[in-house]
Amino acid sequence: MARRSxxxxxGDFVFMDMRYNNKMLxxxxxxxxxxxxxxxxxxxxxxxxxxxxxxxxxxxxxFEAMFTVEWMESRQMRVAIHGVEAQGLEMLVGYAYSxxxxxxxANVQTLLTAANLLNVMAVQEACCHYxxxxxxxxxxxxxxxxxEAHSCKTLAKRSMEYILTHFSAVFRQEEFLSLSVEKVTQxxxxxxxxxxxxxxxxxxxxxxxxxxxxxxxxxxxxxxxxRLPLISPSYRHDVIESLDVVKESxxxxxxxxxxxxPNLMQYSRRARPRECRVRxxxxxxxxxxxxxxxxxxxxxxxxxxxxxxxxxxxxxGHSLVGLVSGSxxxxxxRNSSYGSTSTExxxxxxxxxxxxxxxxxxxxxxQMASMxxxxxxxxxxxxxxxxxxxxxxxxxxxxTSRVWYYPVFVERYDPDMNTWQPMRSVNxxxxxxxxxxxxxxxxxxYLVGTVTVPTDDRRQSPTDGELLSRVKKxxxxxxxxxxxxxxxxxxxxxxxxxxxxNIYVIGGDCPTELSSNTYTDxxxxxxxxxxxxxxxxxxxxxxxxxxxxxxxGYIHVLGGSESFGTGLRDxxxxxxxxxxxxIVAEIPTKYCIFKSLRCFSLRLADVYAxxxxxx
Length: 615
Prior knowledge:
By secondary structure, this protein is of the alpha+beta class.
């Protein structure tokens, strides 16, 4: 509509002409073109542009500062504009009087420079948007350098992302080969540099080296960004070590020597695959046909892959935990027969850091330092780089009260030193702590209560006891246990995980359910900041004894039984922002009957690249 009217709160009639703004600009532009009432002349590149100061001030902070402050230009009729081309200034003046500008490949760089100097943000953003639209492997490097020169942070970020994602084509372009050593090292050092093999990074570095003789003086800085341990020894010897620039540089020789020292490379960033080559996956450990297996599952592409190395001991009765880095799996304790415990611990390295992509078949089980206390079926968690073992000890009779209890000894393991250290505090629990009862979050260890163990020694089954809704937290810094708000629905055989600072308790057996089948689909969430539990949306299926892993910000639940003797094949995913569950995948038929199931979220490099997936 050209005109619009309305009645305001006072009953007055309000009229608005929607065409007025354009008419005003058209009138001002006619005055400019006819040099009518113009009170300033902008001079640039031998050209003159008569203008009105009030129009210039209204569209540019640069001109606002120039003409409203007592500067010399505020009193001059002719003002020289430096640092821009006449074409760019002419286009911006036209924009000031029309609100329109035509951007093309031929003028975008000139226009961006002028818009940046004169602080015309709308035009600057339009130029950046246009360059993102036109970006390809031949111009992305130039666009990135231009964006950095003009402090266009969004364009600089987008162009760098393009360079890293399309590096296999970008590094062959003239723009890349002409870059400074600082920019080349920034690109080659990035965790997001997407290359199928590290040898391609070597190829890019050599092309850059041969482009200009002066690049030889700084090649050590470039070589330092290459993940040399991920390159095959034969390629390293034939292509890199044979270079004259490497032979003549002590720094390059040092980098080559470090690559051959496994102790130096054990924790080196250069020995790890780049982050963009790493997948967030689920590691599923289980027993089948009296043997132990491990499977890798990637929820994003719905593929399974077998872990080829057998475990040294059955999973039953053991506690397992994966390192936060996703490089190792620890298994501790033992329950080979009823009532037995053990101090043993084993470690399996899930990836060989010298191999890319990750080759799961090259890993091996190593026996590590033993715990001080023998345990079985206890809590084992990673917290702030340490591993904590909680509970799992044989029960003890209090001779004074004649009540049976379980001592809750806590030990801490240092993976770097391979040593265990007993913690000061000893707590008492009336129930045996199971692996699912213990979870770590934000520097604390939480216990979610399950069932009591009766004082009558003849009743051996823990399921005969009274359900508890008790929750406690343990602070390793002070070795103090503190009570927390109880869960709303006490349960056994549940799954638990942490997500975004909250603790989730999922599924299990809830005898308070008023039905013959007490398996539950209920999900509760605990907020440590408020010390409160809340109910979440229930799962699609009731699940007894499920397992859970958090991958890519979603909770994934698999396994368990919906009724006695019936294993579930589907995998459910929870979106905490929408509070919704969705079935996203199925367990392959040959894996559907899982025994002693464990599940972890791990980060591995290209686990599907070398052998066919399981079907």
